[in-house]
Amino acid sequence: MILVTGGAGFLGSHLVTQLLDANESVRVLERPGASVDHLPLDRIELVSADIRDEPAVRKATRDCEYVYHLAADPNLWCRDRREFDKINHLGTVHVMRAALDSGAKRILYTSTESILSSHNPEERFVEKLHLNASDMVGPYCLSKFHAEKEVFRMVEEGAPIIVVSPTLPVGPGDRLQTPPTRLSLAFCRGELPGYLECNFNLIDARDVATGMILAMQKGRTGIRYLLGGENLRLSDWLSILSEETHQPLPRWKVPYPLALLVAWFSELWADYVSGKIPIATVTGVRLTRRHMMFDSSVSSKELGLHPRPIREAARDAIAWYRSQGWL
Length: 327
Prior knowledge:
CATH architecture of the domain at 2-173 and 202-230 and 293-310: 3-Layer(aba) Sandwich
Low-confidence stretches: none
Strand order of the largest sheet: 3-2-1-4-5-6-10
Distance between the termini: 39 Å
Oligomer: single chain
CATH class of the domain at 2-173 and 202-230 and 293-310: Alpha Beta
Order of helices and strands: EHEEHEHEHEEHEEHEEHEHHHH
Number of strands: 12
Helix content: 40-55%
């Protein structure tokens, strides 16, 4: 039996699909109240549990030989910032300990590229990059840093845990609209009058799922496998979306100080008035000042991962947006 935490999410749903296509027996752990109707419920075992609830997590990991841990809060803002640590850090510790105590043969932990943003652009091998808490940007990144640090501590004690760090995932299937999808969708709708130039690495979510399976099969402990695709500037990504949708590019390039001011006021409004995800987050804006381009060739070569062209991901994402009635 294979357990996938967060199996109804953007990456998780693609992973579940690929595991089922390989005729694997899959158990999905999702938080209570999560939308799961898009999953093939007749082909999986569904467990409703919160990873903050350690006893419930222990029940979910029982009899599972392989555990893929994807469950996390991927947003860069939440009203109670302490939730990031409870979910992304302590929730990860619960899953890892429960899986190990249940006798899992191999466990995969899903980290994030955002905690690697402090790396030197000349440093090619981020797979073994040493990180410091002082380098983290905002509570989300800090929670994922602490989780990864705890995972590597367990690895040093002999735990069979593989770590993967996907870059920004795009493509079809992002029902909850993670930050890259929210931005892409806003542009496709003509709701993005300006943009803050930055650089990043994009990969199709389906290729991330493939990379996770390859890492589970071939990965070595003690390093992080970077699951990345193409390095782009934001203007490059918007140009690709523009060519596919015929939506004109935004007129204005927003200066960093103005973007930071807007993000600060947006979070203030979200914190005390709306309670909804702000149009801009302080963490997101601050990350635009970091180096977010990566060379994933070492990890891709070892795993045998061949990500599709990012234009294909854009085309499929736009078609999926339309199928959902979002455009």
